Amino acid sequence: MRRPRTHRDDVLIAAAGLACGLVLWAFGLYSQGPGSGLPTGAVVLVPLLAMTSLALVRRTMPRTALVAGTVAVVGDQFTRGNLMTIVMFADIVYAAVVYGPPASARRIPVTTGLITIAVTLGFLAWYREPVALLIGVVTALVSFFPAITGAVVRNHRQAADTARLRAEQTALLAERDRREAVIAERARMARELHDLVAGHLSAIAIHSTAALSLDDPRTSREALGVIRENSVEGLAEMRRLIGLLRDRGDHDEPAPAPTLDGLDALVRQARTNGAGSGLVFRLSDGRAPDTVLPAPVELAAYRIVQESLTNALKHADPGEVRVVLRSADHALTVEVTSPYGIRPGPRVPGSGAGLVGMRERIALVGGEFEAGPVVERGEKIWRVRAELPVTKDDKEPDA
């Protein structure tokens, strides 16, 4: 494993401490008085050299530096002493709290505090004079206060790191929400585009195929009429949708969403488009006259009927296509049935996007959806059934 490199600041601290210590030694300035009888000379430099060497690893090996520095500062007390040895030991205590592991950062302030109390009480018992309190103060300045300062700095750094991490997480969540919003908007636009245009394009495809397949001028003319009508209506729907996407002005009112009151026109259009395929369309609206539905539910129900009629034009056998609406206290049921089998004549291949869009719409309002072939009264039919929940609060209009 590659050992971490010595930090540049640690090299500067070690060099500055050694230079200052040598200057003090050269001028004969020691931390203990001349009456102590302790040795002077080059022996004073041994603890200083050891402490400045430990300053080089104060950041990379903080616990080792603290243990060895304690030994060095104790050894310095058996000489006349150098003030820079003591000052640099205080810096090593500070670094051990700031850069050491969390356990050391918690234990060192407590340990140095206990050592300060023990030294103060010990010298008071030895000297039995108030001057012993000064030794306790010096011990606190060298060990306890640097440890407390390191703990404060470490806590501030951890708080800053936590705030930075929280900001990064918030940014990531915001980006994820933005992407989800973009995906949801694309899905909504895909549903709207499919629901608005699919019916017209399906009718155009069916009648153009019929016009090409049947050599009958009258049939071809009728097919061309239906093609023209659906192409004009589809183009108008496309222009309206493109206008809504391009126009972002706040002053414009939102386009009105289709409601179930427009089902009669929807069924009439399907009846016109499906006349040449032998399809008969019936609408049975069993809702109460005073039924008020929330806009999302009403839009979902309208789109379900619209897509079901489009699918019937593309795939249903000749026969009756029934649209049934029933309302209860807490739900609106939409059911569309059509003959199911192998239909002769022109057909339009399906992609399955319509069923996916219907399921998505029902899921958005919390309803239930099912679609598939069933046998009813001995006949095989294709049934689309959606149950849309309507709560009491939703049904009551705002005051």
Summary?
The protein has helices spanning 8-26, 45-55, 62-76, 83-99, 102-127, 132-213, 217-246, 263-273, 295-315, 353-364, 392-395; strands spanning 279-286, 319-327, 331-339, 368-376, 379-389. The protein is an alpha+beta fold.
Mean pLDDT: 83
Count up the domains.
Answer: 2
Largest sheet: 5 strands, mixed
What is the radius of gyration computed over CA atoms, rounded to a whole number of angstroms? Answer: 44 Å
Query: What's the number of extended β-strand segments?
Result: 5
* First-last Cα distance: 73 Å
- Helix and strand content put the structural class at alpha+beta
Q: H/E series, N to C?
A: HHHHHHHHEHEEHEEH
What's the helical proportion of residues?
Answer: 55-70%
Poorly predicted ranges (pLDDT <50, ≥5 residues)? 394-399
β-strand percent reads 5-15%
Query: How many helices does DSSP assign?
Result: 11
Q: How would you sum up the global shape? A: rod-shaped
Strand order, main sheet: write it out: 1-2-3-5-4
